From TrEMBL:
This is Peptide methionine sulfoxide reductase MsrA. GO terms for biological process: cellular response to oxidative stress. The gene is msrA. Its EC number is 1.8.4.11. Has an important function as a repair enzyme for proteins that have been inactivated by oxidation. Catalyzes the reversible oxidation-reduction of methionine sulfoxide in proteins to methionine. GO terms for molecular function: L-methionine:thioredoxin-disulfide S-oxidoreductase activity; peptide-methionine (S)-S-oxide reductase activity. Keywords: Oxidoreductase.
């Protein structure tokens, strides 16, 4: 018997949508808040981390407001389908999560502060959802770009688990892994809450502090 696919399931590489060889949409040139390029080489001395905390509209704003952030973008990561569309990601058949790519200056914004912002702005114990947003694209993920980030992120998860447990929450389900492919989302998603100031994308913070 063939069972229907559920959006809270992760597909295998064989089951995922096949995607395409090139990006099918525009991204935009300049960040509407920082003024810096959305797509460019990372400035010398800067770092990149990619985080998923649920709906990426509101979470991008959370990170672009941090001092030391050079640029942000929203996109898709953690799955199998090359150059997916938003509709494909929402189907659950790509394996990707909605994510925010953060380019930051560690001399101004230490990675520990990036981690604090990540943990404190969502509920990392909910598995394949955030609040009423259900589906594998809303899962909690943190994709690193250096060995030092990876070690710090794993240590922070252990530390935050202690606080979550003390507060009555369950096991943290956040995936922490080196970044694979990152695919930029469509232009209308980039800096969405600047283009749509009355747009609504709720945060699901637990109120448990980190550090």
């Amino acid at each position: 018997m063939i069972f229907p696919f559920k959006k809270t399931d992760l597909p295998t590489a064989d089951d995922a949508l096949k995607g395409r060889a090139e990006r099918p949409h525009r991204v935009g040139d300049r960040h509407l808040v920082t003024g810096n390029p959305i797509e460019s080489d990372v400035p010398d001395g800067f770092e990149v981390v990619v985080v998923g905390l649920g709906c990426f509209w509101g979470e991008e704003k959370t990170f672009w407001e941090l001092p030391g952030v050079w640029s942000t973008s929203v996109g898709y990561a953690g799955g199998f389908t090359p150059h997916p569309t938003y509709e494909e990601v929402c189907s659950g058949r790509t394996g990707h999560a909605e994510v925010v790519r953060v380019v930051f200056d560690p001399a101004v914004l230490p990675f520990s502060e990036v981690l604090r912002t990540f943990w404190e702005n969502h509920d990392p114990t909910q598995g394949m959802r955030q609040g009423n947003d259900r589906g594998s694209q809303y899962r909690s993920v943190l994709f690193t770009t250096t060995d030092e980030q990876q070690a710090a992120a794993e240590e922070s998860r252990e530390r935050y688990q202690e606080r979550m447990t003390a507060a009555g929450y369950g096991k943290i389900t956040t995936q922490i892994a080196p970044l694979g492919d990152y695919y930029y989302a469509e232009e209308y998603h980039q800096q969405y809450l600047v283009k749509n100031p009355f747009g609504y994308c709720p945060l699901h913070a637990t109120g448990v502090t980190y550090g």
